[in-house]
Structure formats: C-alpha cells, structure tokens
Design a protein that fits this description.
With 512 residues, this protein is α+β, with helices and mostly antiparallel strands. The protein folds into 3 domains: 270 residues, Beta-Lactamase, CATH 3.30.450; 68 residues; 108 residues, Transcription Regulator spoIIAA (2-Layer Sandwich), CATH 3.30.750. Helix 7 crosses helix 8, helix 9 runs parallel beside helix 10 and helix 10 packs across helix 11. 26% of the residues are buried.
C-alpha cells in the first residue's frame, strides 16, 4: 500500500510540475511558429517585389537606351541609307544589346547588325503584332524562345534573347521600327544577385508560364510546371506548397509590369522554421533536465505523505487482530493526517466501549429470545391444531352441503343448498360423478330449489355435469329451477345435453 501510494503521489507531483512546462512549451512553440510564418511571408513579399522591380528597371533601362538609339537614327535624313556600320557603332556605344535591326514601315528588314553569328532578328514584321504596336507609337516586347542547349556551359549564340521593339519617328504619319535583342543572361545576372543576397530561389515566368530566368540552366531546360502551383491561383500572392523544383517551400509571386511576366521567390520551409525548431529543442532540453529534480521532489513529498498513512494502516491492522489490546496511533504532523490519526484513536475507544455494551445487551437478548421462542412454538402448536380441526369441519360441511342420496336402485338424489364458490362448483362435479360410478345410477335428480347463486358459472357447471353423467350412462333431471337460473342455462345451451327438468321432487319421481 505504502509503495503504491508513494508512487502515485510522486507521479502526481511530476505531472503537476511538468504539465505547465509542457503547456508553456506548446504555447511558445505555436506563437513562435505564427510569428515566424508572418515574418517570413512579409519578407517574401518584400523580396519578390524587389526582384520584380529590379527586372522592371533593367528592362525599362534597355527600352530607354533603345529609344535613344531610335531618336539618333530619326535625325538621319534618309533611313533607307542607314548602314550596318552605323548600327554597330550604336551597339558598341551601349552595353545591353547584342543585335540591332531597322525595319521599314511596311515591315521589311532594312539593315541589321550583331555581335553574335545568329542575330535572332526576324527577317520581316509584315502582319505581326510587333508592327501593329509600334505603328501606334508603343514599344513591344517578344518573349525569348525556349532554351535548347546541346551542351553546358552555353555558347553565346545559344543564350535566349528578349526582343524589344521601339518606333523610329520620321514623319508625322511614318514610323520605322528599331528592334534590339537583349541577352537573357543579363536578366539571369540580375535575379542571381538577388538570389544570393536573400538566400532564396528566384525564377521568372513569362505570360505563357514558361520559365525564362533561373539560377540553374537545367531548370530552364526541364521547364518544371511552376505555373501550376497555388501561387498562380486567383488572388494568391503567398502560399506554402510542394515546389516542382523540390522540397516544401514558402513561395511568393509579383508581377513584372513592363513585360507582364511573374517573378517567383521560394524559400524552403525547413529554413524558415529552423529557429522555431531550435527554440523547441532548447525548451524541451530544459524540461528533460528538470525532470530528475522534479522526480526527487515528488519522491520526498510522497514519502512525507505516505508515512502517516502507513502508521494508520498498521493501527487498523492491530485493531482488527486484537481490538482490546489496541495501542493508539501517534502522528506528529499538524495537518489533516494528524487530525485523522486523532479521530481514528477516538473512534477505536468508542468502538471498544460499544462492543462491551453490545456484549452485555446480547447476553440479555439471548435469554429473552429463548423465552419468546418457546412461547411462540407453543402458540404455533395450538394454531396448527385449530387449523386441523377447522379443515375437518370444512370437509364435513362440504360433504353435508352436497349429499348424494340413493333412493332406490339406480336412482340418486343430490340436493344443492347455499352459495357455491368456484371450488365448491368443482366439488359438485367430482362428488356426483363418483356417486354415479359407485351406485351405478341411471337417473340423477339434482335438487336446485335451495341454490342461492344462479350465475353463468353455475349454469356451465350444471351443463358440464349433465354431459359427464350422460357419458357415464346416467340421465340428469334438474329439479326446482328458478327463472334466473333458467336464463343462464339457456345461454349456455343446456338443451343440447338432453337434460330433463321437473318443477319439484314429486314430479321428478314420476320419471323413475
């Protein structure tokens, strides 16, 4: 008992101490997780907006530079006389474009210049969206084609190019077209710098959902379905999902307004919540280190509680084995257990006094019970004798109330006198059938003139008696039937039993 109680008390103390710590640990973990998630989402939005703005500024700077080239060419008296050397000088003067092409208002190529073998410039613009936009005075951007590298690293002519077209205003209603090719590796450098600075993964997707910028060339070759992630659902700018590029990430998306493209920034969830995991492990380590101290404290508290209980248990055992020689329990603690020990000692004294009183009372009670038992046995014998006499008297009365009188050979008379209960009705049939068999009677006269009850039960009994007598070869004559009994006999169908009737015994004797 002591060990079990001490173990339970120790366990309660440990739980009482550790449970608040675990609750605080869970609350701190939850708050840290929410705070870290909100902070990460805000940082993701800022980084994504910054990346989109950086790409936007770079493209706008390229458009501005190309517009400067266009304004310079517009000063030429005859654009049809522009040579490739002039375009080469413009390319050399800047640092962004690898190729330039000048197109007539009809869309036909006028002159081209390039720093690479394949200038990636269209041979004509006739019927294209580029020509329509530029003729309205608007710049136009053509997304780079999909990367198809034969080997890595890429050769300069294998790098995709972004085409930018701007108008060259010659006259009020005449616009030529200047197209420059912007190597995508310059945009790749922009996103790679941001990716390194923010320790994230940055990709850029065009309007068709194709990846046009990534830190790894293999991503551009494989084109994983990044556009199918939750980021591209309606009104979704930040979301957690399993990235097609690998691992669970927190991703954010922002629009590059100049191009209509999307900048996507992804950060692994494991990296975001690394601090939260470290905090959780630190708190859990503190709890584990505190567990031995809590266990020792619980054991000490349990022992202090169990000792008085042990004394009480030993006192109970002594009292149960030898109540008269009981020695009081001494508990020195001034608490509920001490009060319980004192109350137990008082209870034992009171029980011993009560036992002595009960022993005296039991001795007198046993004598009284013996006397009363003898008196009750005598009264019981008298009652049984009276019952036997009464039973004999009832049998005699029952026989006198239903006598079967033989008046001559084969003829008996049975007068029915008084009120007949259900038991007496059963006796009527029994006595009469026995008499018919005993007297070999052929004719039975049932005198009903002294009968008090004439109900359905009596009528059914008379009908049953008549049928039973007929089966034994005797004819029943009902004598002295009253009107109410006659109605009852008719209702039970007495006629079907071949019963004869007579008004009185004199008339019944005529049937003999």
């Amino acid at each position: 008992m002591r060990t079990s109680v001490q173990r339970r008390v120790t366990l309660i103390v440990i739980i009482s101490a550790l449970l608040p710590l675990l609750i605080v640990w869970a609350i701190a973990l939850g708050l840290s997780y929410d705070s870290q998630r909100q902070t990460a989402q805000q940082q993701q939005r800022v980084i994504t907006t910054m990346v989109a703005s950086e790409v936007d500024r770079f493209v706008l700077e390229a458009e501005r530079q190309l517009s400067v080239y266009a304004n310079s060419l517009a000063q030429t008296a005859d654009l049809s006389g522009v040579t490739a050397e002039q375009l080469q000088r413009l390319i050399a003067a800047g640092s962004l474009f690898h190729s330039l092409g000048l197109y007539a208002p009809t869309g036909q190529a006028q002159v081209m210049a390039s720093l690479i073998p394949d200038p990636r410039l269209p041979s004509a613009l006739t019927g294209s969206a580029v020509l329509d936009a530029v003729q309205q005075g608007q710049p136009f951007f053509v997304a780079p084609r999909r990367l198809e590298a034969q080997s890595l690293p890429l050769a300069p002519d294998e790098v995709p190019h972004l085409l930018i077209a701007v108008p060259v205003q010659v006259a009020f209603n005449e616009r030529w077209v200047l197209i420059g090719t912007l190597s995508m590796d310059q945009i790749w450098n922009v996103t790679s710098r941001q990716e390194t600075a923010t320790n994230t993964r940055i990709t850029v997707l065009d309007q068709a959902g194709n990846i046009v910028s990534a830190s790894k060339i293999q991503v551009l070759l494989d084109q994983p379905p990044l556009a199918q992630t939750p980021l591209f659902a309606a009104d979704t700018a930040v979301a957690e999902y399993a990235s097609p590029l690998g691992s669970d990430v927190l991703g954010s998306r922002a629009e590059i307004k100049t191009l209509g493209w999307s900048a996507v920034v992804e950060q692994p969830v494991a990296a975001i919540y690394r601090d939260v995991r470290e905090l959780a492990l630190s708190l859990l380590t503190v709890i584990v280190l505190a567990l031995p101290l809590v266990a020792i404290g619980g054991w000490v508290v349990g022992r202090r509680i169990v000792r008085p209980i042990k004394l009480l248990h030993a006192g109970v055992e002594r009292f149960m084995s030898a109540p008269q020689s009981y020695a009081e329990v001494r508990i020195d603690t001034r608490d509920e257990l001490g009060a319980l020990g004192a109350a137990f000692n008082e209870m034992v004294v009171s029980i011993n006094e009560s036992r002595a009183s009960l022993a005296t009372a039991n001795a007198g009670l046993e004598d009284l019970i013996g006397t009363r038992t003898a008196q009750l046995q005598q009264a019981l014998d008298e009652v049984q004798a009276q019952h036997q006499t009464q039973t004999q008297l009832l049998e005699t009365v029952r026989g006198l109330s239903m006598p079967v009188i033989p008046i001559r050979r084969g003829v008996v008379v049975m007068p029915l006198v008084g009120d007949f209960s259900e038991q007496r009705l059963a006796d009527v049939e029994t006595h009469l059938l026995s008499a018919i068999e005993r007297e070999r009677a052929r004719l039975v006269l049932l005198d009903l003139s002294g009968l008090l009850n004439a109900d359905q039960a009596m009528a059914k009994t008379l009908a049953s008696v008549s049928e039973s007598a007929r089966l034994l070869g005797a004819q029943v004559v009902l004598v002295g039937i009253r009107p109410d009994l006659a109605e009852s006999l008719i209702s039970v169908g007495i006629n079907q039993y071949g019963v004869r009737t007579a008004a009185n015994l004199e008339q019944a004797f005529s049937y003999i």
